[in-house]
Amino acid sequence: GRGPDLSTLDVWDTHLAQAGAELLAARLDLVEALRPLVAKAYDAVAGGSGTSGDREAQLTYKSSLGPGADLVPSRETLAAALLEALAGVRREEVDRGVSLIGPHRDDLVLALGPMPAKGYASHGESWSFALALRLASYELLRSTGSDPVLVLDDVFAELDSGRRDRLAELTAGAEQVLVTAAVAGDVPVGLSGARVDVLGGEVRRV
User: Fold this and answer.
1) Are residues 73 and 20 in contact, defined by beta-carbon separation less than 8 angstroms?
2) Bridge partners of 152?
3) Taking Cα atoms as reference points, which of 17, 51, 47 lies closest to residue 36?
4) What digits encode the pLDDT tens for the residues 98-154?
5) Helix or strand or coil: residue 115?
6) CA-wise closest residue to 188 among 197, 176, 179, 196
7) Model-level pTM?
8) How far is it, in rounded angstroms, from Cα 88 to Cα 80?
9) N or C terminus of the chain: which is more exposed, having fewer CB within 10 Å?
10) Which residues pair with 196 in a beta bridge?
């Protein structure tokens, strides 16, 4: 039988490289902006254990282009690198029937010091990292002049009392905070505001 017609792949690869370079550059800028905010937020939630060298909360963008993608100076250079990489794996992609290069193959690596958070972080550390990402994103949005709503969806049940209290302190300066909890006692007393109970399909303001 006839093999696949690859005559149009050059055109598609060019479009993918151009659009991918824009997305990759934006992601790299975002990770760079979030990195110090995440480290600071993790340190605050974890109680001072997140900025020492051996347990510092770190974000790394893992590109399918390989190490050093964040050092590429411009979108044009990124597009050229993507196009070259796509050409280099074309035969393998066709043989395997999968895409191997592009921003859709990239990942965000979370680490505590030299160790990846996945598989090594404790339950409390994992939740602290998740909250640090949420708080860092919130602070980044605030820096643009907006006042986003900070949503904390049933997070206090997963934290020890120290982390609960520190998280409550961190949210004190937020314009609007929406907290959900299955057990009212999980919410620190330091968080005050309007309370709504949902029970048996009925909504009641307390």
Assistant:
1) no
2) 179
3) 51
4) 999 999 999 999 999 999 999 999 988 999 999 999 999 999 999 999 889 999 999
5) strand
6) 179
7) 0.86
8) 12
9) N
10) 205
